[in-house]
Amino acid sequence: MISREIGRDAGGLANVSRRGLVGGLGAGALVLALGLPRRSAAQGQAEKKFGAAGMPNGWRDDPRIFIAIAEDGTVTITCHRQEMGQGVRTSIAMVIADELEADWDRVRVVQADGDEPRYGNQDTDGSRSLRHFFVPLRRAGAGARVMLEQAAAARWGVPVAEVRATAHAVTHGPSGRSLGYGELARAASELPVPQPDAVRLKDPGQFRYIGREDVGLVDNQDITTGRAIYGIDARIDGMYYAVVARPPVYGGRVTSVDEAEALKVPGVVRVVRIDPPSIPSEFQPVGGIAVIARNTWAAMRGREALKITWEDGPNADYSSDTYRQKLQAAVRQPGKLVRSEGDLDRAMAGAAKRVEAEYYIPHLAQSPMEPPAALVRIQGGRCEAWACTQAPQVTRARLAQRLGLPEEAVTVHVTLLGGGFGRKSKPDFVIEAGLCSQAMDGAPVKLTWTREDDLSHGYYSTVSMERLEAGLDGNGRPVAWLHRSAAPTIAALFAPDPKHEMPIELGMGFINTPFAIPNIRMENPEAAAHVRVGWYRSVSNIPHAFAIQSFVAELAHAAGRDPKDYLLELIGPARTIDPTDLGDAWNHGEDPKLYPIDTGRLRRVIETAATGIGWGRPMPRGRGLGIAGHYSFVSYVAVAVEVEVGEGGAFSVPRVDIAVDCGPVVNPDRVRAQMEGAVVMGHGLATSAEISFKDGRAEQQNFDVYELTRIATTPREIRVHILPGGDYDRPLGGVGEPGLPPVAPAIANAIFAATGKRIRRLPIRDQINA
Amino acid sequence: MATTVILNGTEHRFDGDTEMPLLWYLRDELGLTGTKFGCGIAQCGACTVHIDGAPALACQTPVAVAEGRQITTIEGLSPTGDHPLQVAWRELNVAQCGYCQTGQIMRAAALLQENPRPSDADIDDAMNGNLCRCGTYPRIRAAIKQVVSKGSRP
């Protein structure tokens, strides 16, 4: 019997079937992958659920879902979370293989289709793949190991306590007999899955892969040889290629189209109208005109030849310059109260010194190097998609809904993602491909976004104005703290015209700021969305951390204090804080008892980054150090930056020290890589990246003007410090996102130290000179 | 009239529009998807190939211009996938999402072909046209330098 995963991974896709994943599992091979129970992991409706249990479709730990063993001993692990560069295909396999006692060289990884009732939650965002699945997947691996041990014991007629699985074989101690996993696979597959209390997890001291630096990456060979398949690479014989002309303004629509010239372009076969969505548009395409052709080039040329008149709709006036002024006016007035402690007005009135500042953070585009792209075909009432999606189950549901098919008739195969960063959580591009296939009577159509499409029709990071005011006592200590944050909310994708940040946005480093200040008021003035606002790696933590961590350094300066010491003083002594006491009932979806805010951990990363960079050392003229620390995704990260500012205000970053405490670490090399990447991405949004709008249109269409950090401008040296995670029974923190928020304020603070110029608006560009 | 393109040592005949960028010819017509699309305007380097040994952007090269010349893509860089740069990329786990890395490797291979002992500044100059959104630049530098220090030649 061939396990379902294998058939799915091939999926009929011409260029995936050559990946050699099928090799070890010929017909008749084992298998720990029989019929599956549809057991719901999360039971009980009344109490509030946290972690994986609080996610749609919860978690699974049944070994038969995730593990198949062939009679030649090949172990096939199904990865149900999406790979977009965080290394999850490797890390998940490390966890399962470790508990399974599998030999790494005989492990293969296949990618699950979108099927949350089967796998549990698959929506890969929020930095939670390992946080939510470390324990269930350890149990899955251990459960399979126990089944193999039971099968061996039964074969030999010895007590199971006398046998032990190690390194891809089960041995019987007293007699020295040994059987390989392949030899035991069939018998093991016929056993019931052990009850949870019969499954003994390994002693972490015996881990073979978890916590090791030298495991490598399961996709390394394919990536370096060009054989790795991303959504844009998916191919089926006879497929068509499509691009879409979309309304230049969000909420706009086609009033007329002349397609005659487009149809004359050799290779163009059809022009198809995609209806505009109602607003809020959630994950639906924005509408427009699709051009379907025999190759991508013809489709692009056909699109250029379309003559379309657009009605721009209600957002035609959206311009970033005036909107910034609007946000500024909003934060200068009281807004919706979101946290209050003490008596702010009285404390402010009695303060020896008052400081205020406003910070502006523009829209950003995730712009993964692989733009959105998907291949869809519809045959015999069944739809198959191959897509670079972070959210395959959501993709499946929306595709089914839009195509008028039952969800069971839709299969979403997930390719590698050429970057995601939140953009590929939204399946609008897959739906577009589905509509094109439908218009072609179900023929396969691959739809590709150009970079101009990506930057013009994105789900942008929000635009934000943050106003902070503080009152200092005679010793320069803050006694009053007012923070107003105004930013259009992601909720505008789902509800008509909301004006306030959602709890998940407020809880991203705004209301849960753990400072020891007696009088605090936090407000959220109104802001309306005029574009699609969506998740961007670390989301609202970006503006909140930039404002707060910059302002702390401003207060330190006003008080004549060292900014690192001052930051530690604001954080106060090591203690744990229940985030609900700060008004944050969300806490990244985690149980506040399991994941309180631990100021001791926050202090330690700040101290570690400071020590790393040599905080306090004398700096030559034009050089300066800056620091920032931030809690997000239940992890703690601090960044210390050295900048060098040259003549004319040009600056470079010779050195960054980034310290992370994400709890126990599964894959230290990937934690390191995520921190390095966060520094580079943070450097880009700090220095040069911005999406601005004029007349409702994005002003940056490609990488010539949407400027990202390149190799020559990237920080010269990035040193990552991973704090000891402690026992593996402690809860894991997030890794993919929390590195990003402290980077920009640390750079801005370093620039201040070097030049006395305070940056309050991102990106920095040439402000140092101004 | 058919155009002839010599790709990874094999001749291919193409009857289509010779204004088509080599990128789409490789990807759509020949199914060689290791050469990536990132921007289409010579800003990201994801589509880097070699034409007669020199680095070229496939998105900017019409098939007509490639006619009769030796084109090498990532698929043809090393028959076994063991070019020293590919090995170094794996040893240092350079890739995150991996999407830009074929272009990075092709650009780096052209650099080392031309200058086997590049300085840090030479590396930055050569690689500056290749964007990586995951931020793997520190490891790209390290991988190139590892190959240089080992003195291994393809």
Automatic annotation (TrEMBL), chain A:
InterPro entries, A to Z: Ald_Oxase/Xan_DH_a/b (IPR000674), AldOxase/xan_DH_MoCoBD1 (IPR008274), AldOxase/xan_DH_MoCoBD2 (IPR046867), AldOxase/xan_DH_Mopterin-bd_sf (IPR037165), N-heterocyclic_Hydroxylase (IPR052516), OxRdtase_Mopterin-bd_su_IorB (IPR012368), TAT_signal (IPR006311)
Signal peptide span: none
Pfam families linked to this entry: MoCoBD_1, MoCoBD_2
Residue ranges of domain Aldehyde oxidase/xanthine dehydrogenase a/b hammerhead in the record: 225-314
SMART domains per the UniProt record, alphabetical: Ald_Xan_dh_C
Spans through the membrane: none
Protein name listed in UniProt: Molybdopterin-dependent oxidoreductase
Organism (species): Teichococcus vastitatis
UniProtKB/TrEMBL annotation, chain B:
CDD domains associated with the record: fer2
InterPro entries referenced in this protein's UniProt entry, alphabetically: 2Fe-2S-bd, 2Fe-2S-bd_dom_sf, 2Fe-2S_ferredoxin-like_sf, 2Fe-2S_ferredoxin-type, 2Fe2S_fd_BS, Beta-grasp_dom_sf, Diverse_Oxidoreductases
Signal peptide: none
Alphabetic keyword roster: 2Fe-2S, Iron, Iron-sulfur, Metal-binding, Oxidoreductase
Residue ranges of every copy of the 2Fe-2S ferredoxin-type domain listed in the record: 1-77
PANTHER family: BLR6218 PROTEIN, OXIDOREDUCTASE WITH IRON-SULFUR SUBUNIT
Full protein name: (2Fe-2S)-binding protein
Higher taxonomy: Bacteria, Pseudomonadati, Pseudomonadota, Alphaproteobacteria, Acetobacterales
